[in-house]
Write a structure and sequence with these properties.
This protein has a single domain, classed as Growth Hormone, Chain: A. It is 82% helix and 0% strand. It has helices spanning 2-11, 17-38, 40-51, 55-83, 85-103, 109-137, 140-151, 153-171, 175-197, 223-226, 228-262, 268-296, 298-317, 322-335, 338-351, 356-385, 389-407. The chain is globular, with a radius of gyration of 20 Å. The two termini are 34 Å apart.
Length: 414
């Protein structure tokens, strides 16, 4: 403990150590979600050809990953209390890296499914504790901004995978295997960094959260934490919104590159460039809408974000001129990481830092249910109709429903 305090205090001679935690959190999401999950969309076309996979089987790979994520979030609260967020995050990232390396050597679909299930478990065990740490390290008026910057880690990973994977496919006969090996190695490096830098709480470093002063450490009375009935109704409301997001966004993330290649006639390199544009635009989504939610409220921020997402899904579903394809990708990228950052800040506002891990873990579990169902149903629907148009229309309907539910979120109880 003493050595941790010393290193924290050295790190905050001019900058609060919470900002180091935030930057490390960005790396964590870069590895756990960005590389561990969102690189799959770029890998699927070449994997599908090499292994002769149907759309249904491609969807099943994504679904197994999300099932693993679900298993993990059920355990996150208990494991975080027992081992601490820092140790749990480092171990989980190591699990992701090792499982990705093994996928690069796997010879059949069943082994890939089992390994990618393990990748999903690692993603859940690293992502939920990391997001929860932000609520511990940042006061409410800084929380949306901080979670927004953490969320952009996935955007950097999308940029990398969109450029690197098509390149490796042109250099190597089985480039998709090399890609898994390279990405897995990067994740293992991030695991080491997180283990070195992260701290479990500001108190561990003798600090207050960023944005909180000694004179007003408990400025706001939290009626949410004191009312079980209010708590349960708000949690279920948040969970329903997060489910709709999980169901809809993952259909686009999993199948947009496959759609571009197999239905729109683009090469893998061009489709990969499109995916990289999603990553580039997404770098603005978390911080911009996180700051927006800090200033104008979580409710209007969520309504705006889901409205933009529904437009993205409709534009890719309809048979429109190519310019609307660019607009679809732009709409998706500019808001894609804003929902997790706003939801994390929202839960922190309602619950308080001491309860955020357990409650965010629960709504993430419900969110994960949406992620499990979404890609599988989208794959089945595409196999039945021969196109992903119906799947994207379904995603648009769910996003519009989320706009409606967000409009009825209760105001923060304080």
């Amino acid at each position: 403990m003493d050595s941790h305090n010393i290193s924290c205090k050295k790190g905050i001679s001019s900058v609060h150590y919470g900002w180091y935690v935030m930057a490390t959190g960005t790396l964590c999401l870069f590895a756990s979600l960005g590389l561990g999950r969102f690189s799959l969309g770029v890998l699927l076309p070449s994997m599908g050809r090499a292994l002769q996979l149907s759309y249904r089987q491609m969807g099943l790979i994504g679904t197994l990953n999300f099932i693993g994520y679900l298993i993990a979030v059920l355990l996150c609260g208990r494991l975080t209390r027992r081992f601490g967020a820092r140790r749990l995050i480092g171990t989980a990232l190591a699990i992701i890296g090792i499982s990705m390396l093994l996928i690069g050597w796997a010879q059949n679909l069943y082994l890939i499914l089992a390994l990618y299930l393990l990748t999903g478990i690692g993603s859940g065990l690293s992502n939920v504790p990391m997001v929860s740490l932000i609520s511990c390290w940042f006061a409410s008026n800084k929380r949306g901004r901080a979670t927004g910057f953490v969320a952009i880690g996935s955007g950097f990973a999308i940029i990398l995978s969109g450029k690197l994977i098509p390149y490796l496919n042109t250099v190597y006969e089985q480039g998709w295997r090399v890609s898994w090996l390279v990405l897995g190695t990067i994740v293992l490096c991030v695991a080491a960094i997180c283990s070195l830098i992260l701290r479990n709480s500001p108190q561990e470093c003798g600090l207050l959260p960023v944005g909180m002063t000694e004179s007003h450490p408990n400025k706001h009375h939290n009626a949410y934490a004191e009312s079980p009935r209010l708590r349960s109704s708000i949690v279920l409301h948040c969970a329903a919104i997060y489910f709709l997001f999980g169901f809809s966004y993952v259909i686009y993330a999993t199948f947009i590159v496959t759609t571009l290649v197999q239905e729109k006639g683009f090469s893998e390199a061009v489709a990969g460039n499109f995916w990289s544009w999603v990553g580039l635009l997404s770098l603005f989504s978390g911080p911009a809408f996180g700051i927006f939610s800090d200033r104008f409220g979580r409710r209007p921020a969520l309504m705006l974000v889901f409205a933009i997402q529904s437009v993205a899904y409709l534009l890719i579903a309809l048979d429109l001129p190519q310019i609307f394809l660019y607009l679809s990708i732009g709409c998706y990228g500019i808001v894609v990481w804003s929902v997790p950052s706003i939801m994390a800040a929202l839960v922190g506002d309602y619950a308080g830092a001491e309860r955020v891990a357990a409650i965010f873990g629960f709504i993430t579990f419900v969110f994960g249910l949406g992620q499990v169902i979404g890609p599988y149903l989208a794959g089945v629907l595409a196999d039945t109709t021969g196109s992903f148009a119906g799947s994207f229309l379904m995603a648009a309907f769910f996003a519009l429903t989320a706009v409606f539910l967000s409009a009825f979120l209760p105001k923060k109880q304080s």
